[in-house]
Amino acid sequence: MSTPRVSVGEAQAQVRAAVRLRPVVEIPTFDAAGRVLARSLHAARRLPTYDDSAMDGYAVRAAEVVAERRFIVDGETAAGNAEVLALPAGAARRIFTGAALPPGADAVVMQEDSRRDGAGVFFNPKPRSPALSLVLPFENVRRAGSDVELGTALLAVGRVLTPGDLSLCGAMGSLTLPVFDRCRVLIVGSGDELIALDAGAPRRGEVVDTNTWALAAAVSLMGHRVTVLPTLRDDRAETERVLTDAVVRCDVLITCGGMSVGDHDHVGPTLRALCGPDFGFWSVAIKPGKPLAFGHAGQAAVFGLPGNPVSALVTFELFVRPYLLGTEGHRHLFRRPCPALVVHDLEPGGGREVYLRATVTGFTDGSGSERLPIVDARRNQSSGALSGLCGADALIRIEVGQAARSAGERVSIIWLTENAESRHG
Q1: 124 pLDDT exceeds 90?
Q2: What pLDDT digit, counting tens, does each position of 174-221 carry?
Q3: Could you give the CA distance from residue 415 to residue 359 in angstroms, rounded to a whole number?
Q4: Containing H/E element for 356?
Q5: How many separate helices (H) and strands (E) can be counted in the chain?
Q6: Among 45-59, 162-176, 274-288, which is the least confidently predicted range?
Q7: What is the DSSP string of 29-68?
Q8: What is the rounded distance in angstroms from the CA atom of residue 188 to the CA atom of residue 227?
Q9: What rounded mean pLDDT belongs to the chain?
Q10: In a 3-state reduction of DSSP, which class is residue 323?
Q11: Cis before residue 288, ω within 30 degrees of 0?
Q12: CA atoms within 13 A on the CB side of 43
């Protein structure tokens, strides 16, 4: 297993290139927020579907409105009235916002510009240029199709659907939307030392298997279908049997542990054999997470993650999460690094790209050219330290050979949480 170690950038490029888009499925429109549209959509209706009033006021014929002319109010039209009678000449119709404009009417005078006189009404619109009528045709009227015309391109393929998008699709009568399906993900941990969460306090030599459930939570948070398999023992035959069966039952297989080169590490060699010519990489120049495998076994993408909890979740963030995003049609797979200020000194980069778990403690006041997060990575950075993950908002990225940083200097970070600014800003 002397596969050359690849850089983080090279490994991420391989992951991106290997993404296999999921099939298109139709799902209920109002379950589609956050999903990726699989086909472009065009307007099947005009919006509004009819001329309607943009104001509470009076429907009129614009050419008839002159100063101090009294109009007879012949009734009213409210939103939702299905049948609207034509407006007689010389009459005005009380109308409310959203109501259909009566046939014959071509404008609405705002209620604020009117004065009732029993069964009649006078209009006193705001003064205009002498060359203009008191009321212009279609003033305060939302014309049919003024928002969306029939056949208009609405949403392009690849659009990540928002609640506003779904509202528009619903107005078009779309009960379902075509999106890219999500993955069936299997997760399995490996190691004789691992015990289940409900097995009680661990004895000497035992470790509670939190990795698989933390990974399952990360997958579930993305909306993919996830199953955690029973822990693999350090047995070659069992490992080969379980993993061979797993790759035909899922779209993505994630293993955790058994990726080193010890006598009891059987997961790595099994994955490599299953992937065969579709094997991608075995070792990545990253800390934490060096023993990391990726490839395809048949139709299943396979990720062999390290067994240390920090390594497992950091490599999930950098490699597995982007792959899952790609399968459902997302175009932006990797979180974009952004600048931050560090509150303590950092050692220079070595031969591997380093990702330090950090907490955002606040933000600069913005008096300079930009408002930057302030980060603190003074926590246990061991790859086996669960406390190093708890409360982490970001990863500080230290590039290979990067110069040391002093307190107050800029660093590059990758956000792990979406609401850090609202909590600290």
Answers
A1: no
A2: 999 999 999 999 999 998 888 888 888 989 988 888 999 999 999 999
A3: 10
A4: strand 353-363
A5: 8, 26
A6: 274-288
A7: GGG-TTPBBSS-EE-SS-BSSS-EESSSEEEE-GGG--TT
A8: 9
A9: 92
A10: helix
A11: yes
A12: 18
Rg (CA), the chain: 32
Q: Which of 324, 318, 425, 304 is CA-nearest to residue 373?
A: 425
Over the stretch 269-300, which tens digit does the pLDDT of each residue have? 999 999 999 899 988 999 998 889 999 999 99
Report the b/e string of 232-252 with b at 16+ CB within 10 A. bbbeeeebbebbeebbeebbb
Q: Given phi > 0 = left and psi -120 to 50 = alpha, else beta, which region is 401?
A: left
Instruction: Decide if 81 contacts 59 (C-beta within 8 A).
Output: no
pTM over cut 0.90: no
d(CA 414, CA 395): 5
* Structural domains of the chain, ranges and CATH numbers in brackets: 8-22+182-327 (3.40.980.10), 33-46+147-180 (3.90.105.10), 52-142 (2.170.190.11), 338-424 (2.40.340.10)
